[in-house]
Structures are given as C-alpha cells and as structure tokens.
Amino acid sequence: MKRTYLDKQLVEIFIAEHLFYSKDYERALEPNLRLGGRMYALLDLDPALKFTERAEICAEKTGDKGMLATTLKQKGLVLQSMLRFEDAVDAYKKSIDIDREIGDREAEATTLHQIGKVFRDTNRFREALEYYNESLAINREMGNRAGEAATLHQIGTVYQLTNQFEEALEYYNESLTASREMEDEAGEANSNSEEELEDRMPSTPEAN
Question: Where does the signal sequence lie (predicted)?
C-alpha cells in the first residue's frame, strides 16, 4: 500500500520524538530541525517552535555550535512570525554571538539583516538602520554582492517609510546597480519600486 504524505510525516514525527526522548541527541538533531522548518513553512507555528526548540536542545547537548546557531536562527524566524519580536531578537542575537565565535561572517551578516527587518517592521527605524548597516559592512567586506544588494534595498525601505525620499532613492539606486552588475533579475525587479517612489516625491521647483 502506497504511503501518503501525511503517513510519511507521522513516521518522521514519531522517529524525531523517539530519538529526542531516548536522549539520542546527535541523531535527533536534524529530524527535529527539519520538522521545525517544515512546520514553519506551513505556518503551523506552535509545532514549528516545539521541534525547533528540541533541535536547539540537541545542538546544546552535542556541543555542535554551528548547528546551534542554525537552530537559533530558525527559532528567531518562528518567533518573528508569531509576533514575539523581543524573543525573536534575543534568539537572533544568541545566534550572532556563536557566528562571531566560530567566524561565520556570512551567517552573521544574514542574521544582522534579519534583526534589521524586525526593527523595521516594528517601526524602530533607528535600530533597524544600525543593524542593516552592520550587515552591509560585512557583505561589502566579503564581496557578497547579493547580500549587499538586498540590504541596500532594505535600507531604502526604511528611508521611504520615514518619508526621507531622496535618501531612499539613493539606496534603491545602489541596490539596483549591484543587482545589475551580478545580473540578478529578481533583485532588479525588486528595486524597480524606486519608480513608484519618484511619483510620490514632491516636485522640485524650477530655477528662475
């Protein structure tokens, strides 16, 4: 008899829970993290948090710092979706501490960017800019043009939301340039919102 998707998921849940409660933390880590990520993608947030926190415990027990940082990032995403913003930022900051300890600069930049999004979405714009600029500096240092373009765009959105249209256009244009240079069509389409912004800007009086 052919197994359905639901049957397979129930088996995965059983295995993940069995390994966790058997304290086989090394083998339990990945299935619990994977289930947490899958539940998050389905917006089934309570189970997503449960499995992700189990993965976090497994990573702590096994001393796997890289995986611990990964579980904390996923935990932050789940908490952010649950609108538990302070808890999300706390998880992200713990992840960044580990990234810095193990020298994972790319992961650090990504998580700084994500904290910036939390602060932007909660109208804490000054703090959002601080974290975006930290992320931007690391991406530029690493030559990560995709990360640079994405963060430049987000900085533009902060300035747009605070009605600083000239600054917003400057960052959107920088993002667009970076995207075009790496032929990132998706990024270019994203930054085309600058055209909409120009329509909203007050007209500049002509010189007499």
Answer: none
Contact 113, 135 (CB under 8 A): yes
Instruction: Count the Cβ atoms, other than its own, within 10 Å of residue 29.
Output: 27
Query: pLDDT (tens digit, 9 = 90+) per residue, 62-88?
Result: 999 999 999 999 999 999 999 999 999
Nearest to 174 by CA among 126, 140, 134, 130: 140
Using one digit for the tens of pLDDT, what is the confidence trace for 132-164?
999 999 999 999 999 999 999 999 999 999 999
Residue 2: inside a domain: no
The residue among 184, 174, 97 whose CA lies nearest residue 133 is: 174
> Which helix (H) or strand (E) segment is 162 a member of?
none
Q: Does 22 have pLDDT greater than 80?
A: yes
Q: Give buried/exposed letters for 139-157 (b at 16+ CB in 10 A, else e).
A: bbeeebbebbbbbbbbbbb
Alpha helices by DSSP H, the chain: 5-21, 25-41, 45-62, 65-81, 85-102, 105-121, 125-142, 145-161, 165-181, 185-191, 193-200
Q: How many domains is the chain built from?
A: 2
Q: Which of 103, 124, 156 is the last residue of a domain?
A: 103
pTM of the model: 0.83
